[in-house]
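Narrative of accomplishments. A recurring question from our advisory board has been how the design workflow behaves on a single, concrete structure rather than in aggregate. To address it, we present the structure tokens for one chain from the evaluation set, followed by the sequence designed for it. No filtering or post-editing was applied between the two.
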């Protein structure tokens, strides 16, 4: 990380965030998480818990699962984690949650996942706590995944809902949630960890795609555009796919059918820390059909990579078309390939867009500003 980036980051921390430390000091808050696996919502929970601890708050976590990726890391912050999901019965789970809340009553009881909102709403009402629900991704996809009844309960029973994307807020407003009940809290990224590395010296270009290998991510489009680009680019182009999921086998077969065998295209599976992979890459490509505010876009931009992404959810609020990357319509493999080819052939453009993307993330999504974001939000919740 260059000296200028460090100076800018800590300027924000000292000038904006420190005045919210008092507002968060000694705040007792309990989060309910459905999982602590390797997902974006869980990473955001870790960032929030770290910021709360640094400000003197007293957070704890209840979780429906146990022994997952983030659990030990959260405990290492000094934050207790308790599993409350051993029983299949939802009523028994709620009873266990109430027992745990009564042991150390918090001021705020907050859901980290959409599908745990109903538990939080019921627990908060029973114990007269400030209950906060969560709405992630684009809203619609979470409601559909929760089913007709579960989706309605998770959207309408919390007194307050916090969303991480403006597209989710628009969905909620369009489905009967009052404007005063829903609030925006942006995703952040650790800009001291996800930062540009030294310039790579090997020949050729490396394209990176990262995310769960599931239908929404349309990784098949990434594979197709890599095949198209290799036939047109003057320099050698290779690809890296990071992530795992139900489509991995079929995607590997698709790549093999197009002649994209290692080392031309690598499937690296799940990676616990993507920082070094970003530094090994030249361009980040996201091909999703729907998103909220993708953490990978913030991490890639923070790492100084130019972005090519589909125009979905809040991607247009993260990527400035022509300034920090390029936006294309969903499913438009020709448009995606054209944008990538433009970057492949223009080193100065890659440098400029990557640097501007890094600056945008520092100014708007750095975890060093999270104390400010949380201080403003929780002050409003307690007033």
């Amino acid at each position: 990380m260059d000296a200028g980036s460090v100076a800018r980051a800590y300027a924000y921390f000292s000038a904006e965030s420190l005045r919210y430390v008092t507002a968060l000091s000694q705040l007792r808050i309990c989060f309910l998480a459905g999982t602590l696996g390797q997902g974006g919502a869980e990473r955001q929970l870790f960032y929030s818990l770290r910021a709360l601890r640094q400000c003197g708050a007293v957070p704890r976590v209840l979780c429906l699962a146990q022994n997952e990726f983030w659990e030990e890391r959260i405990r290492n912050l000094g934050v207790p984690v308790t599993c409350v999901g051993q029983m299949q019965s939802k009523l028994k789970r709620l009873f266990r949650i109430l027992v745990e809340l009564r042991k150390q009553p918090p001021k705020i009881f907050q859901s980290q996942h959409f599908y745990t909102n109903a538990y939080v709403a019921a627990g908060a009402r029973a114990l007269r706590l400030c209950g906060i629900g969560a709405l992630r991704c684009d809203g619609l996809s979470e409601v559909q995944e929760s089913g007709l009844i579960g989706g309605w309960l998770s959207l309408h029973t919390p007194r307050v809902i916090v969303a991480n994307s403006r597209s989710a807020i628009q969905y909620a407003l369009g489905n009967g949630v009052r404007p005063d009940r829903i609030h925006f809290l942006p995703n952040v990224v650790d800009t001291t960890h996800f930062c540009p590395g030294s310039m790579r010296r090997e020949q050729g270009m490396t394209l990176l795609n990262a995310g769960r290998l599931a239908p929404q991510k349309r990784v098949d489009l990434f594979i197709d555009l890599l095949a198209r680009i290799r036939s047109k680019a003057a320099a050698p182009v290779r690809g890296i796919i990071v992530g795992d999921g139900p489509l991995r086998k079929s995607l590997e077969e698709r790549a093999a059918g197009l002649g994209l065998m290692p080392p031309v295209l690598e499937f690296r599976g799940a990676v616990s820390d993507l920082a070094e992979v970003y530094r090994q890459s030249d361009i980040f490509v996201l091909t999703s059909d729907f998103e909220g505010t993708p953490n990978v876009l913030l991490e890639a931009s923070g790492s100084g990579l130019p972005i090519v992404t589909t125009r979905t959810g809040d991607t247009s609020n993260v990527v400035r078309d022509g300034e920090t990357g390029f936006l294309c319509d969903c499913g438009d493999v020709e448009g995606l390939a054209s944008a990538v080819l433009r970057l492949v052939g223009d080193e100065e453009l890659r440098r400029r867009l990557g640097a501007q993307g890094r600056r945008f993330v520092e100014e708007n999504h750095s975890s060093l500003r999270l104390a400010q974001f949380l201080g403003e939000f929780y002050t409003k919740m307690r007033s």
